[in-house]
Design brief:
The complex is a heterodimer of chains A (255) and B (331). Helices cover 32% and strands 29% of the residues of chain A. Chain A is of the alpha/beta class and 255 residues long. Chain A has a six-stranded mixed beta sheet with strand order 6-9-10-3-11-12, sandwiched between helices. Chain A has a four-stranded antiparallel beta sheet with strand order 2-1-4-5, covered by helices on one side. The longest helix of chain A is centred in the C-terminal third of the chain and has 16 residues, at 179-194. With 331 residues, chain B is mainly alpha-helical. Chain B is built from 15 helices and five strands. In chain B, a hairpin with a 2-residue loop joins strand 3 and strand 4. Classes of the chains: A alpha/beta (255), B mainly alpha (331). Bound molecules: adenosine-5'-diphosphate and magnesium ion. Residues 44-45, 87, 171 of chain A line the site of magnesium ion.
Chain lengths: 255, 331
C-alpha cells in the first residue's frame, strides 16, 4: 500500500533472557487510529519506546513514510515527526506549565547572539492551547508539582496536539483523567487523526478502544495476537484475543 | 487566605535567606560594638568573593542533580599555576609580558582552562560512563590537591605581578575589583540560569532527567558543559585566591568546599537538584562572611567558626524542609 505511514517488520526485543517482543509486524496509515491492546507485560510499552527512539530493537526493521526508519534517540524520532505521550508522565514538576509545554522547543529571542527565553510569547501560546482544549489551569506560571494528576495529563495531551507531527504514540494517556476529560481527550484524538496524523493509542479500557480506533491490534506475550478493524469485531472477541482463549467465530486472524 | 497575603508569603519564602542576612546584620550591628561601619560591610563583601565564585560552580552542578566535590582543589591548582607563572619570589618563575596588562587575560585563561579541563574529565566519566559523581569528584578532590602539593613541593609562591595584583587593590565605589568580579559572576549566571534555554534545560534535567531526554534535549552534552563551567569557575575562584593572597601556598583554600556547600544549601539550592537560587547563594555567602566577621570582632577563637557554620547548614536544611511543607500548604 502506498499511504502507509509506519510499517513494523518482525520487531524483536530481548531484555537479557526475557523476550519482551517476539516478532511484531503491523502497519498504520495516515489519519488512522490504531488501538493497541494487551495484558500487562504483553510488550506494549516496549514497542512504543522502540518506535519513539527510547530503546533499540534487538532485530527487525521499520519503514516510516516508505523509508527505512530507526531512531537512536527521542530527539531523532521527534525530528522525523513522531510525538509520544509516555505511560509515566514526562513532565518536569519543578518547572512551570509554560516551561513544560515548550520543553526542548523554547521560543527564543537573540540579544547579541545569545538566545534568551521569550517567556511572554511562550505563555501566550500555552494558555491559548490549553484554553482551546478546555483545560482549566489557574496560572501558566504554577509549577507542575502543584497541579493535580488530571491537569498534568492534560498538559501532556495538549502538548502533543499542539506540536502535531505525523505520528502520535499514546501510552495509556487517560489513566489519571476523569470522565469528562477522557471524553475530551478522545475527541482530541479524532481531531488529530482527521488532520491526517496517525495515532497509536494504548489503553486498557475496551470501550475507549472501540470509541476511537479504526483498528485494533492485540499483543499477547510479545506477538500480534489479532489485527482487526474495530467495526468488524466485538469487545468479547477482543478480550478472547487478549487472554488467548479461542472461541469459534471470534477470528483472531481476522483481517 | 487572600491572594495577596499568599503572594507576600511566597515572596518571603523565596527570598528567605536575604531576610536572614538583613536580620543577622541588624542583630550584629546592634549587639557588637564597631560592627556597624561601612568598612566592615565592604570587608564582608570582599571576604566573600572567592567563596562566592566557587559556590556558583558548585550550585550549577547541584542544580542538575549532580555533585562536584573537586572545586576546592581545582581552585587551589589554578591558584598555584598562576602563582608559579607570575610570582617573582618563592617558587614563582616571575614571567612578565611587555605590555604588562597582557598578564591579566593570560593568567585568567590559564586558571579557567585548567578548571575546565578537570571539569571535562569529571563530566565525561560521570555522564558518559555513568559513574557516581560523588566518587569521581571525590577522587578529583584528592588527586588535584596532590598535584598542587607535587608541583609546589610544599613550598609557596609570593609577590604576584602588580599588574594582576591590581584587582585586589583597585576599588570601584569603595569595593575592590575582585569583589566586583564575584558580583558580576552572580549576575551573569543568575541570568544564564533563569533566562536562557541552556539554563532552563539544566534546571529541568535536575527535575526529571528522563523527561528532558524524551523531549529531545541533549542531556549528556548539557551536563558535561555544566561540569566544565563548574571547573572553569573554580579556576576563576583560584585566580581570585592568588590575587587576594598575592601568591599561592600548597594548602591554599583548604576547607572552602564545605563553606561552599553551606552557602549553596543556605541559599536554597536543594541537594536533590532542580531548584535554582543563585541570588540566594550569594546571600548565603554574605551570611557566612558576616558571621565570620562577627566572630573575629568579638574575639572568639576562630575554631568556633566551624561549629557555627555546621549548625547553620543544619538550620538551612531544616528550614528547607519546613519551607517545602509550607509551600505545599499554600498550593
Ligand atoms: N527495561 C526493562 N528491563 C527488563 N525487562 C523489561 C524492561 N522493560 C520491560 N521489560 C519486560 O518486558 C515485558 C513487556 O513489558 P511492557 O512493554 O512494559 O508491557 P506492557 O506495557 O504491555 O504492560 C515485561 O515482561 C517486562 O517485565
Ligand atoms: Mg505499559
Amino acid at each position: 500500500m502506498t499511504d502507509k505511514l509506519l510499517v513494523l517488520n518482525d520487531l524483536r526485543k530481548n531484555f537479557g533472557a526475557i523476550e519482551a517482543l517476539k516478532g511484531i509486524s503491523f502497519s498504520i496509515g495516515k489519519g488512522e487510529v490504531v488501538a493497541l491492546l494487551g495484558d500487562n507485560g504483553a510488550g506494549k510499552s516496549t514497542l512504543v519506546k522502540i518506535i519513539s527512539g527510547g530503546q533499540q530493537p534487538t532485530s527487525g526493521s521499520m519503514l516510516f513514510e516508505g523509508a527505512e526508519y530507526q531512531a537512536k534517540t527521542p530527539a531523532e524520532a521527534k525530528a522525523a515527526g513522531i510525538e509520544t505521550v509516555y505511560q509515566d508522565l514526562s513532565l518536569c514538576t519543578n518547572v512551570d506549565v509554560v516551561g513544560n509545554f515548550f520543553m526542548g522547543r523554547e521560543i527564543c529571542r537573540k540579544i547579541a547572539g545569545i538566545p534568551f527565553l521569550n517567556e511572554r510569547a511562550m505563555e501566550d501560546i500555552t494558555s491559548k492551547a490549553l484554553a482551546s482544549a478546555g483545560t482549566r489551569i489557574p496560572s501558566m506560571r504554577t509549577k507542575v508539582e502543584h497541579l493535580s494528576g488530571g491537569q498534568r495529563q492534560a498538559i501532556e495531551l495538549n502538548r502533543f496536539v499542539h506540536w502535531g507531527g505525523k505520528l502520535v504514540l499514546l501510552d495509556e494517556p487517560f489513566a489519571a483523567l476523569g470522565v469528562e476529560q477522557t471524553r475530551r481527550g478522545l475527541d482530541m484524538i479524532r481531531h488529530v487523526a482527521d488532520q491526517g496524523i496517525g495515532v497509536i493509542i494504548i489503553t486498557h479500557i475496551m470501550q475507549q478502544a472501540f470509541q476511537v480506533a479504526d483498528r485494533i491490534v492485540v499483543i499477547r506475550h510479545g506477538v500480534v495476537a489479532g489485527d482487526v478493524e474495530s467495526s468488524k469485531t466485538s469487545p468479547d472477541a477482543v478480550i478472547q484475543m487478549i487472554t488467548g482463549q479461542s472461541l469459534s467465530g471470534a477470528g483472531p486472524e481476522g483481517r | 487566605m487572600t491572594p495577596r497575603t499568599r503572594k507576600t508569603l511566597e515572596f518571603v519564602l523565596d527570598n528567605l535567606v536575604w531576610f536572614m542576612l538583613i536580620f543577622v546584620l541588624a542583630i550584629f550591628s546592634a549587639l557588637i560594638p564597631n560592627y556597624f561601619q561601612p568598612g566592615i560591610f565592604v570587608n564582608i563583601i570582599e571576604a566573600s568573593s572567592v567563596l562566592g565564585v566557587m559556590s556558583i560552580g558548585l550550585a550549577l552542578v547541584i542544580i542538575t542533580g549532580h555533585m562536584d566535590l573537586s572545586v576546592e582543589s581545582v581552585a587551589a591548582l589554578s591558584a598555584m599555576a598562576v602563582g608559579i607563572l607570575f610570582c617573582s619570589a618563592g617558587i614563582g618563575l616571575g614571567i612578565t609580558f611587555s605590555p604588562e596588562w597582557l598578564m591579566i587575560p593570560v593568567s585568567l585563561l590559564v586558571a579557567c582552562t585548567i578548571g575546565a579541563l578537570i571539569g571535562l574529565f569529571n563530566g565525561f566519566l560521570i555522564v558518559k560512563l555513568k559513574m557516581s559523581a560523588f566518587i569521581i569528584t571525590l577522587a578529583s578532590f584528592i588527586w588535584v590537591r596532590g598535584i598542587v602539593l607535587a608541583v609546589s613541593g610544599g613550598r609557596s609562591a609570593q609577590d604576584l605581578a602588580p599588574a594582576i595584583r591590581w584587582f585586589a587593590i583597585e576599588r570601584f565605589l569603595g569595593i575592590p575589583l575582585s569583589a566586583w568580579i564575584a558580583i558580576t559572576c552572580f549576575l551573569v549566571f543568575s541570568i544564564l540560569i533563569a533566562k536562557t534555554p541552556f539554563g532552563r534545560h539544566l534546571v529541568m534535567i535536575g527535575g526529571n532527567e528522563t523527561a528532558t531526554f524524551r523531549a529531545g534535549i541533549r542531556v549528556t552534552r548539557n551536563l558535561i558543559i555544566a561540569f566544565m563551567i563548574a571547573g572553569a569557575i573554580a579556576g576563576l575562584a583560584g585566580w581570585l585566591l592568588a590575587v587576594r593572597t598575592s601568591g599561592a601556598t600548597a594548602n591554599l583554600g583548604v576547607g572552602l568546599l564545605f563553606n561552599a556547600f553551606a552557602a549553596v544549601v543556605i541559599g536554597g539550592v536543594s541537594l536533590k537538584g532542580g531548584v535554582s537560587a543563585l541570588p540566594g547563594v550569594y546571600a548565603g555567602v554574605l551570611l557566612l562572611s558576616s558571621i565570620n566577621t562577627a566572630i573575629n570582632l568579638m574575639g572568639l577563637p576562630a575554631n568556633y567558626t566551624q561549629v557555627i557554620h555546621g549548625l547553620l547548614v543544619l538550620a538551612a536544611v531544616l528550614l528547607d524542609t519546613f519551607k517545602q511543607r509550607l509551600r505545599q500548604r499554600l498550593a
